[in-house]
Amino acid sequence: MADxxxxxxxxxxxxxxxxxxxxxxxxxxxxELFGFVGSNGAGKTTAMRxxxxxxxxxxxxxxxxxxxxxxxxxxxxxxxPEERGLYPKMKVLDQLVYLAQLHGLSTNEAHRSAEHWxxxxxxxxxxxxxxxxxxxxxxxxxxxxxxxxxxxxxxxLDEPFSGLDPLAVDVMSDVLREKAAGGVPVVFxxxxxxxxxxxxxxxxxxxxxxxxxxxxxxxxxxxADTRLTVAAPEAPSGWAASVPGVRVLNENGGRxxxxxxxxxxxxxxxxxxxATGPVTEFRRHRSSLTELFRSAVSDDRTGExxxx
Length: 308
Description:
It comes from Amycolatopsis arida. Residues 6-233 form the ABC transporter domain. The chain has 308 residues and is of the alpha/beta class. It folds into 2 domains: 6-216, Rossmann fold (3-Layer(aba) Sandwich), CATH 3.40.50; 225-286, Alpha-Beta Plaits (2-Layer Sandwich), CATH 3.30.70. It is 31% helix and 27% strand. A hairpin with a 2-residue loop joins strand 9 and strand 10 (210-215). Helix 3 crosses helix 4 (107-120). The radius of gyration is 24 Å and the shape is elongated. The two termini are 32 Å apart.
């Protein structure tokens, strides 16, 4: 099982003068939930399409279980595109059975698997409905079922939580956790960074076609700037401005919000605050994935010259 990882190895892609991907490298390990995040046009969808084999890379290689992606390998991938990839006039059950058969399941196996995922994803009452008559959230559930119906060995999901209500988010989160717990590498993109932070073992941040950070959230945020809240009722205005390694973010009525630069000592800040009188609150805030993301893409130039 240890070698059944999905590896993206120095993958590059250009469209004329536009660099979509520039030597992008990361791996998704067996049993791991990997969050792939970036601004619109950063290259997430392009990378996922190359991983699936829908697009060809100009350079680099995609491997699964140590071998280059082939047609046979692609049949083992469960892919969920961001745009709707379903037949709108087909009924839910018929569609899932058809897609399972395309992946090599027998008619009986396809029916059993389709019924399983219809029930698991809360679609039992919609199994005979045409996809086009479903709400967007239920269409998203069918799309996930389509990615799962052939029992894939790896999952590649592009914005799977888009358009879902909180209950559906919980259902989908549980399903992805279950698949990862079974040893399946799972990579998904999302703009819901709080969800990525809660679900994922590791995260990759892409900017302008380049990977700028890969690792666990705690690992990635450990070296980020730390925020402090200090309540010193008797402190004069501007008391923290001269403390080394500190940037004052907000000061209001004896309560000061500070940003502590990497390597700066919070005890120096505390000593400076105590020198002004009593300190009634002194609290550190761990950097969130959202804050890390904003920092990582702060000079991202979206718009002309970018692709998804």
